[in-house]
Amino acid sequence: MEPITLTFLGTGSAIPTKRRNHSAFLLNYKNENLLFDCGEGTQRQFRYKEISTTKLTRLFITHWHGDHILGIPGLLQTMALNNYQKTFHIYGPRGTEHFMSKMFETFVFWGKIDIKIHEVSPGKVFENEDFTIQAEEMAHGTHCLAYSFIEKEKIRLDKKKLKKFKVPNSPLMKDLQHGKDIKLNGKTIKAKSVIYKQKGRKITIILDTKMNNKASELAKDSDIVIVEASHASELEKEAYEYNHLTSKQAANIAKKAKAKALYLVHLSQRYEHNQQLIEKQAKKVFKNTKVPNDLDVVEI
Ligand SMILES: [Zn+2]
Ligand SMILES: [Zn+2]
Asked: Which pTM value belongs to this model?
C-alpha cells in the first residue's frame, strides 16, 4: 500500500511562537503533494524538512485570514525562481479569485508560474483515479472550508488464494482483478473468490471554526482528523465569540465522527508552555489524541 505522509509544517495560530509557525499541512500521496493552508513562513518550514516546494501540486486554502495565507506570495515566488514547470492548482472558498488577484497587485512578482485558481463550494472539489477531496463550509465568520482527503476503494487480489489456485503471473491476474472469471487448466476460477475490497484511507482537516455539525459529518470515519483547538475547554465562551474551538469541542468532533486518531493544531500562543493542558482535556473525551509539534510527520 502506498503510504500517505502528513507533515505538520505549522501548528500555531494567529501569532507565531518560537515553537509553532502559522498553519500549513502537507499531505503526500504518490506523485501528489497537497498543501493545506500556507501561513507566513511556510516555505521556510519546507527547507527545514528538506522538501522542495517545486514538488507541490495543489494548495487548498481554508480561508483568507492572514495566519492561513500570508505565505502564499513568498511560496509562489520561490517556486517560480526554482523553475516550477507544472500548473499549480489553488483551491479556496468564495472570494479566492479576488484575493489572489489583489495579492499579485501589491508587489512586483518575479518569474513566471502557471497558476490555476479554483474557487470552490462545498462538495467534491477534486478527483483523480486515486482519491477525491471533499470540502465543507465551516462557521468562522468568513467563508471557511474544511477538507477531506478520501482515498478510493481498491480491488486487491488475495495472494494466498492465487497460489492455491496456481494462477500464473500473467494477464489472467488483471482479468481477475477486473472481476472477470478465468479458465485455467480446464477449471473456472471465479474472480469473486480471489479478490477483496480494500477500504480507502481518509484524512480530514478542520481548521478555524466554531462548533458546528458539519465538522463531524465531514470527518466521519476518518483515519486521521486534524482539528483546531485554539482554546482550552474553560474558555468556551471566548472560543465561541471568536469563532474557534476548544480542546474538548475538537475531541467531541473526533468522537462523533468515529475517527481513529485526532491531532490538535492551531494552538493559541498562551499554551506555548502548556500544551499538555489541551491534550489532557481532549483525551478525556477522545483517547487517541495528540498535539503535534511543527515538523512532525505521521504516516498511514
Ligand atoms: Zn487561524
Ligand atoms: Zn481564521
From this structure: 0.93
* Cα(262)–Cα(226) distance, integer angstroms: 6
CA of 233 to the centre of ligand 2 (A): 19
Closest-approaching ligand to the CA atom of 63:
2
Residues of the chain with CATH 3.60.15.10: 4-153+199-299
Nearest alpha-carbon partner for 211 in 180, 255, 170: 255
Please list all protein residues whose beta carbon sits less than 5 angstroms from ligand 1, which is an ion.
Answer: 67, 208
Ligand 1 centroid from CA 263, angstroms = 16
Angle between helix 275-285 and helix 247-257 axes, rounded to 10 deg: 40
Closest to 223 (Cα-Cα) out of 157, 275, 156, 298: 298
CA of 132 to the centre of ligand 1 (A): 25
**Predicted confidence pLDDT, tens digits, the chain (300 residues):** 899 999 999 999 999 999 999 999 999 999 999 999 999 999 999 999 999 999 999 999 999 999 999 999 999 999 999 999 999 999 999 999 999 999 988 888 777 899 999 999 999 999 999 999 999 999 999 999 999 999 999 999 999 999 999 999 889 999 998 999 999 888 999 999 999 999 999 999 999 999 999 999 999 999 999 999 999 999 999 999 999 999 999 999 999 999 999 999 999 999 999 999 999 999 999 999 999 999 999 999
**Cα(15) to centroid of ligand 1, in Å?**
9
**Which residues are catalytic, by number?**
67
Angle at 157 between CA 178 and CA 160, to 5 degrees: 150
Class of domain 4-153+199-299: alpha beta
Contact 217, 201 (CB under 8 A): no
